[in-house]
């Protein structure tokens, strides 16, 4: 059924007359009251569908008229606050729709109108007049709904403002980089402040928006300011928040950016650690040259010779670790036992001589173990 917006004045009048019938509901038959509530629900839905076909500005104007007309000084009832709350919730939903389309101006306009409407309903419910006794439970429930609605509106206002700030900062940076060859650092630092403000606006309110703003900060510090320490800090914060989302936004470009940079940072850190470890090992390996040569010679003579050499010349620190039997039936078990006895443990200091020696011993033992795999 097509809803005709030209009937809006009639529906608004109908809702006002239905609200005036509230004081008589308790004196009528239950069927009469049920019919009245059902009729009002249908009228409210028709009103909502009709304003949805209007321009954004006109839709907000009609929503304002409905809320204003139903929250005039009078005894609050489900027939006054109910339709007003439904239309206010509609405004919130419309703002979210515009936000998803990245139309931040319209989204903000709807949110501000919803904010005013919710405040008017809340005032009507608490100070509109004496509540009819038989409506007390419904009014209490409506107060809870309106409070929850106000919290949702405030949360989305923060998200909308945060998104708007972030998009504006991105645009400023884009314009700046497409301009002349010299980079205006004043604009860059303004963008940094904007992204930080976007983070603050959504902190503990919307995880995804906060993570997106942090990702922009990370990329800015990494690609423009060239501050790897701060880039790492904001990258990690963004990833931690993103991983707490369900589902994780793996297909979003901002998430892919920070994950890619985090992996690069981790790989670079691993490489630096390996290079440093290699540098520290070299003089120790030189000092152990004769002992390592003797170990390799024993290894070439067979597994049993290697194990015998180990326990004779490099006994384990734990006196309870005795040389295992190397007869034909136990040779594989003997290698595994030796690996346990000589594995570098936490009590050794990296990279002291004993630690490096044990690393080299484990390499030889693992070579032997690989021969016995599958036997």
- The N- to C-terminal Cα distance equals 78 Å
The major sheet is characterized as: none
What quaternary form is this?
single chain
Rg over CA atoms, rounded to whole Å, is: 36 Å
| Total of helices | 14
Runs in which pLDDT lies below 50 for 5 or more consecutive residues are none
User: How many DSSP-defined strands?
Assistant: 0
Helix content, binned percent: over 70%
Shape: elongated
Given the helix and strand composition, which structural class is it?
A: mainly alpha
Report the portion of residues in β strands: under 5%
**What is the mean predicted local confidence, pLDDT?**
89
String of helices and strands: HHHHHHHHHHHHHH
Protein name: J domain-containing protein
Quick summary of this structure?
The chain is mainly α and 375 residues long.
Structural summary, described in words:
The protein has 375 residues and is mainly alpha-helical. 76% of the residues lie in helices and 0% in strands. The longest helix is centred in the middle third of the chain and has 43 residues, at 136-178. It has helices at residues 8-20, 30-52, 56-70, 78-100, 104-127, 136-178, 185-202, 207-225, 228-243, 253-287, 289-300, 303-313, 331-342, 353-372. α11 packs antiparallel against α12 (303-313). It is built from 14 helices and no strands. The protein is elongated. InterPro entries: J_dom_sf (IPR036869). This is J domain-containing protein.
């Amino acid at each position: 059924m097509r809803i005709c917006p030209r009937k809006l004045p009639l529906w608004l009048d109908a809702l006002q007359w239905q609200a005036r019938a509230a004081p008589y509901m308790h004196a009528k038959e239950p069927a009469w009251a049920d019919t009245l509530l059902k009729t009002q629900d249908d009228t409210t839905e028709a009103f909502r569908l009709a304003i949805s076909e209007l321009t954004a500005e006109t839709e907000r104007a009609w929503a304002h008229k409905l809320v204003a007309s139903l929250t005039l000084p009078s005894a609050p009832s489900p027939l006054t606050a109910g339709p007003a709350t439904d239309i206010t919730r509609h405004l919130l939903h419309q703002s979210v729709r515009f936000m998803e389309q990245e139309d931040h101006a319209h989204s903000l306009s709807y949110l501000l109108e919803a904010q005013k409407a919710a405040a008017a309903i809340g005032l009507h419910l608490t100070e509109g007049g004496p509540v009819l006794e038989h409506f007390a439970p419904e009014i209490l429930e409506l107060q809870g709904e309106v409070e929850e609605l106000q919290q949702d509106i405030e949360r989305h206002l923060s998200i909308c403002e945060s998104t708007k700030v972030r998009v504006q900062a991105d645009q400023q940076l884009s314009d700046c980089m497409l301009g002349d060859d010299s980079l205006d650092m004043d604009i860059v630092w303004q963008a940094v402040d904007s992204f930080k403000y976007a983070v603050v606006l959504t902190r503990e309110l919307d995880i995804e928006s906060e993570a997106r703003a942090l990702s922009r900060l990370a990329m800015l510090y990494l690609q423009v300011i060239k501050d790897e320490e701060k880039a790492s800090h904001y990258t990690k914060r963004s990833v931690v928040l993103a991983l707490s989302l369900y589902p994780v936004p793996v297909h979003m470009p901002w998430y892919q950016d920070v994950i890619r940079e985090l992996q690069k940072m981790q790989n670079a850190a691993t490489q630096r650690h390996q290079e440093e470890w290699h540098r520290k090992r070299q003089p120790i390996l030189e000092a152990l040259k004769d002992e390592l040569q003797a170990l390799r010679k024993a290894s070439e003579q067979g597994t049993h010779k290697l194990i015998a050499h180990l326990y004779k010349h490099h006994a384990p620190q734990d006196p309870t670790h005795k040389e295992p039997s190397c007869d034909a039936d136990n040779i594989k078990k003997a290698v595994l036992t030796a690996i346990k006895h000589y594995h570098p443990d936490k009590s050794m200091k990296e990279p002291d001589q004993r630690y490096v020696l044990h690393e080299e011993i484990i390499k030889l033992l693992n070579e032997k173990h690989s021969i016995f795999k599958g036997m």
